[in-house]
Design brief:
Strand content: 5-15%
Order of helices and strands: HEEEHHEHHHHEEHHEEHHHEEH
Bound molecules: alpha-D-glucopyranose
Largest sheet: 2 strands, antiparallel
Mean pLDDT: 93
């Protein structure tokens, strides 16, 4: 990897990201220690890492899948155990809840209307994670692979599709990108943290469910999200290739085609389908570039490192710099997020764009060190934001070593 950020500093907004002489070793040592202290044994020999012991003391679905990717890189069998725990609350319809509270008290029981888990899902990163863990030669129980297939089939075949064929979200939190400006259009008034908080409780009440409680659709939030759909397609393609599931592979490719058709030259991004299509569904956010995992589009990829777009020494930024909503320290409003950095780097690798890949590798590795492995960070300085340390920022050690 490069040892210094190759960043255009011409407009004076970007700091210089400089890595220490052996960042890979430093990152791996620190990552192992962070995951080790976040590890919580769970039931019969399994377990998981809390995202942060104080701020996030339970198990989150997509976080755990990212942790499994890091455990696999570190050669630790907890990779498969963490996936087993993440998928253990799956219901008979294939739905996987996004938070597991375990046996302890659940302070959100009334909010979710159920005990041990939440009642919505999160991006199905388990398709990718299963492929990575098995690819590293570490064990994943057959039952866990079956559950991953069932979880993706639920999203591909049971979750409602938008008119343009995209997978609909039932709640903004299902995207994992909770306060992304992409969802602003469903609010009655202007976006503000308190307005959003109230709306998020209300939005749970309108979700339509299977008799068992699996979320199928939400008339009050019928957003066909290009970002979430891309993660469904990408995870399904990885898992389908691994287990030889041709039908799932075909469904995922069909979804990828529907996503590709949502590119809008004028907006320079992929546009969501549904109620926000003419408004906030066109805001240039990083989550809206996740289609780069399944669709080749060099001009979209170039935005990731363009200093006038998403490029930053510790980037990419979470929102395009030219958007009125861009706030480099705001929660999901412009700060840089490690899991999106990892996915962006994966997209650059898939595209065979070595320069973008190296640049994203360098910024994520630099940022993890500069921010002390924060939940997210200020993209130009690397200053920590949110919880510190956050387990998913250890993805930097995977990226740095590749
Ligand atoms: C926040 C993030 C979500 C993540 C969770 C735990 O809610 O928005 O994506 O899964 O924290 O890290």
């Amino acid at each position: 990897m490069t040892t210094e950020a190759e960043r255009d500093d011409g407009d004076g907004r970007h700091g210089e990201a400089t890595l220490p002489p052996s960042p890979g070793g430093d990152l791996e040592r620190a990552s192992r220690a962070i995951l080790q202290s976040a590890w919580r044994p769970d039931g019969a020999g399994g377990g998981f890492c809390v995202p942060n012991p104080t701020t996030y003391p339970w198990q989150w679905l997509w976080d755990s899948c990212f942790h499994a990717v890091v455990w696999a890189h570190l050669g630790d069998e907890r990779a498969g155990l963490e996936l087993a725990a993440a998928l253990s609350s799956q219901d008979a319809d294939g739905f996987v809840p996004h938070v597991r509270y375990g046996d302890g008290p659940n302070p959100h029981r009334d909010f979710w209307g159920r005990g041990g888990t939440s009642s919505i899902t999160q991006p199905p990163m388990y398709g990718h994670a299963v492929a990575v863990v098995l690819g590293a030669g570490l064990p994943v129980a057959d039952e866990v692979v079956d559950r991953a297939v069932a979880g993706l089939e639920f999203l591909l075949h049971r979750r409602r599709r938008s008119r343009a064929g995209l997978v609909e979200l039932c709640h903004p939190w299902e995207s994992g990108c909770d306060d992304s400006p992409r969802w602003d259009g469903v609010l009655d008034g202007a976006w503000s943290p308190p307005a959003w908080h109230a709306a998020k409780g209300d939005l749970l009440r309108t979700i339509e469910r299977t008799p068992g409680g699996a979320p199928l659709a939400n008339p009050a939030f019928a957003v066909g999200s290009v970002g979430f759909s891309a993660l469904v397609a990408w995870n399904a393609l990885e898992l389908a290739a691994l287990v030889g599931h041709d039908a799932m592979g075909a469904a995922a490719r069909e979804l990828a085609d529907a996503i590709a058709a949502r590119w809008d030259d004028e907006a320079s991004t992929w546009v969501d389908d549904g109620p926000t299509a003419a408004g906030s569904g066109r805001v240039r956010t990083l989550d809206a570039l996740l289609p780069l995992l399944v669709v080749r589009r060099p001009e979209a990829l170039a935005q990731l490192t363009d200093p006038a777009a998403f490029g930053a020494a510790f980037g990419p930024t979470g929102v395009h710099r030219a958007e009125p909503t861009f706030d480099p320290t705001g929660y999901w409003r412009g700060g840089a997020w490690p899991q999106l950095g990892y996915l962006s780097w994966r997209a650059a690798r898939w595209a065979g764009d070595g320069a973008t890949e190296a640049s994203l590798q360098n910024s994520l590795a630099s940022a993890a060190l500069a921010s002390a492995f924060a939940e997210y960070w200020e993209p130009d300085s690397g200053a920590s934001l949110g919880a510190v340390p956050q387990s998913w920022s250890t993805l930097a050690c995977v990226v740095a070593a590749s």
